[in-house]
Amino acid sequence: MSKTVKLYVVRHGETYLNRYHKLQGWADSPLTEEGKAVAKRTGERLSHIAFDRVYTSDLGRTIETAELILKQNKHSDPLELCRLPQFREVFFGSFEGDHVDRIVKQVAAQHGYQYETSREVFEHHSMSEVLAFMKQADPEADAEDADELQARINQGIEQLLLDVNGQAAAVLLVTHGVVIRQLLDRYTEHPEHQGEVKNASVSVLEFAGDQANVLVFNSLSGPLD
């Protein structure tokens, strides 16, 4: 019988494109000073946990965040980062780098919805619907939809669980906001697990085999087991 795997999922710290409210999928930008500081605080909250493995996406902002977190860890064994492109953020296609409000309102309007802000769009439509709007509106047809994103996230989780090889483990995964949203949506429909995933927040899933329960969602303060 397989043992449980506790997966600590952290969104990267604030980047400059986050600060400027720009779409940042496969595009990348470094952490702001505030982003670094919050990542360090998250590392302090996780400093008592002896991680067996550490995963990131292959984008610099998750790697930088993971390195800052591990520098705070009290356990001396150095851990190599496993960088998996399957955990890369959703690709926004030709909309990469554009202002979030402008593009999200624009793609919603093409489907007959009129909103003043991107927040209003997300209040009325799921992430899957918004990604579908963007894919249909992308003139280059390169933007990913939710099914494409979920398929590669599933591949990443399968690889992670294969690496653990049925052993009990504590695993750190530093990834991206939409990826975390999709990952949690796979394992829960609880309304309290909805909403924006905050920079450097921690969510915790406990796996038994390929099934998982969400133990913590989007936490920026308080103790973590």
Number of distinct beta strands: 6
Order of helices and strands: EHHEHEHHHHEHEE
The radius of gyration computed from the alpha-carbon positions, rounded to a whole number of angstroms, is: 17 Å
Q: In CATH's first tier, which class of the largest domain applies?
A: Alpha Beta
Largest sheet: 6 strands, mixed
- CATH fold annotation of the largest domain: Rossmann fold
Describe this entry's structure for a reader.
With 225 residues, this protein is an alpha/beta fold. The model has no long low-confidence stretch (mean pLDDT 94). It has a 6-stranded mixed β-sheet. Helices cover 39% and strands 17% of the residues. It is built from 8 helices and 6 strands; from the N terminus they run E-H-H-E-H-E-H-H-H-H-E-H-E-E. The two termini are 23 Å apart. The chain has helices spanning 16-19, 33-45, 60-71, 100-109, 118-124, 127-137, 146-164, 177-187; strands at residues 4-11, 53-56, 81-83, 169-175, 202-208, 211-219. It folds into 2 domains: 4-91 and 144-219, Phosphoglycerate mutase-like (Rossmann fold); 92-143, no CATH class.
